[in-house]
Amino acid sequence: MAVPTATIEQINPIIKYLFRLKKVATSEDIKALFPTPKPPTPSIGNALSTARDIGLTTSGGKRGLYDLTNEGKEYGRYLDADKPEECPRILRESIIKNPLWKDIVDFLRATKGQETETKDLVLSVEKKLEKQWKTDMRNLVGKCYGSILSFAGLVEYQRGKMLSKLETMPTAELQKGVPAGGVTTQGAILAPVEAKMCPFCKRYEVDVVDETLQLNLPIDGGQKLVVKSTFYCRNCRQNFSRILERLVWAKGD
Fold first, then answer.
1. Is the pTM above the cut of 0.85?
2. Topology annotation, domain 8-164
């Protein structure tokens, strides 16, 4: 589960400078590009680790080396071109499809239309991770959740309260023409569900019991769907969920 320790204000310059380097890099490599006063190396490391959990960075092949993912390169290109307004969409899509953020996204969906506080989200994560954080840690994680989710357009704050915007975000407009049953308006049927191995007993005796469309992105000749699929294992009688990507191609006339 994603537990961020850097805000989006700390992450964005790191991604921009890593994009400019055009190679795998260490925290020190990135630090060298910062104007004076330079941020502490541990702060850069926290930003890189949080960016990895978001899906913008990945391992550069060995400990301490970082590289950009495809999403990170697109994100960094817009930052480098002084077009940060294009970045929230990339961040939002990356968070929604990222398994590390599943419980956070579920929290936002469950609290839609309700006034909550960031600490409610933090306590929910702390409980699921079976941790006992100190107040300073809770405050740090809450500040980082609020910064990242606000920039992504997934929450907004009114009178100090957090409001989920998960179902009303701009990308929801892309879902027009895709009925809940999983068939496009052109009649192309969704591809078979992949990754059906039960994580508990490692068997494949599973049934799909529910599917929820998370995100729908148009691509040339079709659509890319992000779907939350819930499975039931007949062997160990456990339910489990996975976030899956599918390509749906429109049938010709």
1. no
2. FokI Restriction Endonuclease; Chain A, domain 1 (3.90.241)
Phi-psi region of 213 (alpha: psi -120 to 50; beta: other; left: phi over 0): beta
CA distance 206 to 191: 17
Which residues, at least 6 apart from 109, have a Cβ–Cβ distance to it below 8 Å? 164, 166, 167
Using CA atoms, how far apart are residues 208 and 196, in angstroms rounded to an integer? 9
What does the DSSP assignment read for 112-127? TTS-B-HHHHHHHHHH
CB 24 within 8 A of CB 61: yes
* Three-state DSSP class for residue 105: helix
Distance CA 57, CA 147 (A): 18
Give the position of tokens 């990339």. 90
CA distance 118 to 110: 14
- Rounded to an integer, the average pLDDT of 151-173 is 76
Contact 162, 146 (CB under 8 A): yes
DSSP 54-65: HTSEEE-SSTT-
**Domain ranges within the chain, ordered by starting residue:** 8-164, 176-249
Q: Are the C-beta atoms of 243 and 224 separated by less than 8 Å? A: no
Flag whether pLDDT at 231 surpasses 80: no
Where does residue 34 fall: left (phi above 0), alpha (psi -120 to 50 degrees), or beta otherwise? beta
pLDDT tens, residue by residue, 83-109: 999 999 999 989 988 889 999 998 998
Short-list 49, 51, 42, 39, CA closest to 8: 51
Residue 206 has pLDDT above 70, yes or no: yes
